[in-house]
Write a structure and sequence with these properties.
Order of helices and strands: HEEHEHEHH
Number of domains: 1
Protein name: N-formylglutamate amidohydrolase
Distance between the termini: 47 Å
Oligomer: single chain
Strand order of the largest sheet: 1-4-2-3
Pfam families: FGase
Structural class: alpha/beta
Number of helices: 5
Helix content: 40-55%
Number of strands: 4
Shape: globular
Length: about 160
């Protein structure tokens, strides 16, 4: 596509993402945005999954203010709980050697300090993405987390 076409597609995509977020807020008073990315582990001890949310700046919805980690935030708490059952996870809240490069990209920045939105970039290691069984485990964990997040709204 030409540069103009690419810009039009880019704008339409991000406009629609914002529209979906606003629709969720209108209907449910909250929205959970998940932006998936991939990375290659530079060494064995690196986490399998890294959350990016500009060190908590795109997590607006408190789940439990007494918690000190990702469990404070609706959406993030459920994702952390489910994914960490199977994979080594960096929750992205404290600056570490692992998460600086993955603290949040363009999409998460669009929801910076936005009320009633939790926007999370999920970085997934290549070893998981290339292994069907591990990918399936991750997808099921994320689906379970979303179901738990939605059920928190209904209760």
């Amino acid at each position: 596509p030409s540069s103009t076409e690419a810009q039009n597609i880019f704008r339409a995509y991000h406009d629609q993402l914002n529209n979906y977020a606003q629709e969720c807020i209108s209907k449910h008073n909250r929205a959970l945005i998940i932006d998936f990315h991939g990375f290659t582990k530079p060494y064995k001890g690196y986490p399998d999954v890294i959350f990016g949310h500009i060190f908590g700046k795109t997590l607006d919805l408190l789940e439990n203010s007494k918690e000190q980690d990702c469990n404070r935030y609706w959406g993030c708490a459920q994702l952390q709980d489910e994914i960490s059952k199977f994979f080594v996870l960096d929750d992205g809240l404290a600056l570490t050697d692992f998460n600086l490069s993955y603290s949040g990209g363009y999409i998460t920045h669009q929801f910076y300090n936005r009320s009633n939105v939790s926007a999370i970039q999920i970085e997934v290691a290549k070893q998981i993405r290339l292994d069907f069984d591990r990918t399936n485990i991750l997808v099921k964990a994320i689906a379970n987390a979303i179901i738990k997040s939605v059920n928190r709204i209904i209760i």
